[in-house]
Amino acid sequence: MLQDELIFLKERVFKELQGLSTLEELEVFDTHILGRKGEFTMLAKEIASVPVSEKPILGQIINEIKKTLSAAFEEKKKNLSPRENNSPLDVTMPGAEQYIGHLHPITYAIEEIEDIFKRLGFVRARYNEIEWDYYAFEALNMPADHPARDEWETFFISEKAVGLQGRILLTPHTSSGQVREMRKYSNEGLPVRMLNIAKTYRRQIDISHLPMFHQFEGLVVDTAASMAELVGVLDYFVKEFFSRDRRIRLRPYHFRFTEPSFEVDISCTLCSGKGCAYCKDGWTELGGAGMVHPNVLSAGGYDPAEYTGFAFGFGVERTYLMKNNLNIGDLRLLYTNDIRFLEQF
Fold first, then answer.
1. SS3 for the chain, per residue?
2. What is 107-128+171-342's CATH number?
3. Structural domain boundaries of the chain?
4. What mean pLDDT is reported for the chain?
5. pLDDT for residue 74 is more than 50
6. What are the φ and ψ backbone dihedral angles of 65, each rounded to 5 degrees?
């Protein structure tokens, strides 16, 4: 009788399910039992030949058995899914290799710059990123009408002066640390040999400028600091950081906080000094340098009649990009956070 055959099939299926060990075996068995031409499907079709009076009860039995079998197959599938081959965990198998990151290329550049100047006796310092107008401009001999103090050049935080030291701003250069550093030692008449590396902010952005960038500032104040010593320091840095075949060019310039002043250029490594979209004429500017202005020495507490000093300030990013064979034509690439770019370093 059909009802007995269906019950017998259900019991056989439960027994055979216990012996299956892979998902492939389960899939074949599922098709064999519940598929379009499976054993259960073919038996269920025989309901058409039973008397009409028995069909309601038999139809109910068929539906219940089908639900039971479907649930049994699903449960077996869950048990087999974590390990399809049903084999124990092999603890001797190597784990998945983990990606190991590294420091940002600018961090490497800062470490190298610090190491080079440490050999010359410079001491690392770092001063405020949020600064007073006084230290960023006034103490550096920059008058109120100087273009750098315009809102189109500098990021001002306060609209009006806050106290005697003026407005609050994001420091546009590491030179704002010069007077702070000098005041630490001027009372005792001690010499200064500072290397200030910090973030700075200006309202410029293109392939060779960023609104946030790093600068390194060198400051020497002593009774015998000279232009010859300054040129020697710059020459040593260029040879150590770049290579001995790179050329530098000194151009007379005007800075309010140094006198005399000049800008330091280096031959472009992207075009070997021929001229390209980055450098324009074969040279790229590293930064400014010069002898500390007497007014700045006075603001720092040193008597210009007894002490002299020199200072220089370079952008870390721009300096790093001019390394030999680096071939990065756009400064902005350093901060796009594109892992395809950064993982090359």
1. CHHHHHHHHHHHHHHHHHCCCCHHHHHHHHHHHHCCCCHHHHHHHHHHHCCHHHHHHHHHHHHHHHHHHHHHHHHHHHHHCCCCCCCCCCCCCCCCCCCCCCCCHHHHHHHHHHHHHHCCCCEEECCCCEEEHHHHCHHHCCCCCCHHHCCCCCCECCCCCCCCCCCEEECCCHHHHHHHHHHHHHHHCCCEEEEEEEEEECCCCECCECCEEEEEEEEEEECCCCHHHHHHHHHHHHHHHCCCCCCEEEEEEEECCEEEEEEEEEECCCCCCCCCCCCCCCEEEEEEEEEECHHHHHHCCCCCCCCEEEEEEEEHHHHHHCCCCCCCCCHHHHHCCCHHHHCCC
2. 3.30.930.10
3. 2-80, 107-128+171-342
4. 86
5. yes
6. -65, -40
Q: Which of 12-16, 260-264, 267-271 has the lowest mean pLDDT?
A: 267-271
Amino acid letter for position 107: T
Residue length of the chain:
345
Alpha-carbon span 193 to 173, nearest angstrom: 18
Going by C-beta distance under 8 Å and a sequence separation of 6 or more, which residues neighbour residue 161? 133, 167
Exposure letters 268-291 (e unless 16+ CB within 10 A, then b): bbbbebeeeebbeebbbbbbbbbb
For β-strands 283-292 and 212-222, DSSP reports them as unpaired
| 113 closest CA partner among 284, 315, 332 | 315
Contacts 24+ apart (CB under 8 A), 281-285: 283/249, 284/208, 284/318, 284/322, 285/318
Least confident of 88-102, 227-241, 255-269: 88-102
Share of the chain above pLDDT 90, in %: 39
Instruction: Tell me the one-letter amino acid at 116.
Output: I
The 10s digit of each residue's pLDDT in 174-192 is 999 999 999 999 999 999 9
Residue among 124, 135, 126 nearest 194 (CA): 124
Contacts of 167 (CB under 8 A, 6+ apart): 132, 133, 156, 157, 158, 159, 160, 161
